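User: I'm putting together notes for a lab meeting next week and I want to include a structural view of one of the chains we've been expressing. I don't have a solved structure, so I'd like a prediction I can at least talk through. The sequence is below, exactly as it appears in our construct file.
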Amino acid sequence: MLFDKFNFSTGTHDSIFIIVMAKIMATGDISSWWVGSPRGFGIFIPTVSFCRQFLGFGLSPFAPAKLSPSYFLLTFFYFCHRLTKEYITSLSIRVWLVILTTLTLFSTPIVFYNIFYIHTNFVASAFFFTAVCSFWLGIREDSNPLLFLGLISLLGFSLCRPEAPLFALIVLAILFSQTQISYRKRIYLGIPYAISMIVWHWLIGRMETNAQTDVMTAQTIYQFITIFIVFSGSVIISKVRWIEKYIYLTFIIGW
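Assistant: Thanks for the context. Below is the predicted structure for the 255-residue chain, given as structure tokens.
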């Protein structure tokens, strides 16, 4: 409410492009991307603003600025608390330690700027942080729900920025190289992600865009699709005994 009432936000020309994308989505004419498009800014942040309009809350350009800091700080606070719980038994000490750790984020001006900045940076970093911590704790605690949370977060991260899926594949490669991740888990995590990305890139490859901010050409998009297909094949054949024996080398060197 404070963001809307007092306009606690800042922006650049990129912010304007994202806001225009949300307005284009609200009109329903998604074939007329002319300033910004999913090929340049992803689709997650414009979708947040569009969903507000669809649910009757109005098309607020400040929705990303409100969503990003709260989500990032809450997830940072939560995972710091989870990670310290194993080593510190006192609840009060854990809480104060986590609060002080969270406050260190504000020791650099870039955090203050991004809290109010209408862009993809903060929410993408929140998704990425959640994915990495969820995968790590999922391995340590042998928790399928945490691994699933990591997968969902990785999908959100991949929809925030056009280059994000490449970093997501690196995370999955490191994850799958761990011997604690069974073949079934590799299938359940890797194949749905790869299929989702193949479908998404096929869709944006079919979009007719004339946006000057596009960073992905049709050739780049089809290269991405090829990478996801190869990655899916790597996951499927990782059951082969000699490949599974050297699973670490298979995914780390391969990706």
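A couple of points you could mention at the meeting. The radius of gyration is 20 Å. The chain is about 70% helix and 0% strand.

User: Perfect, that's what I needed.
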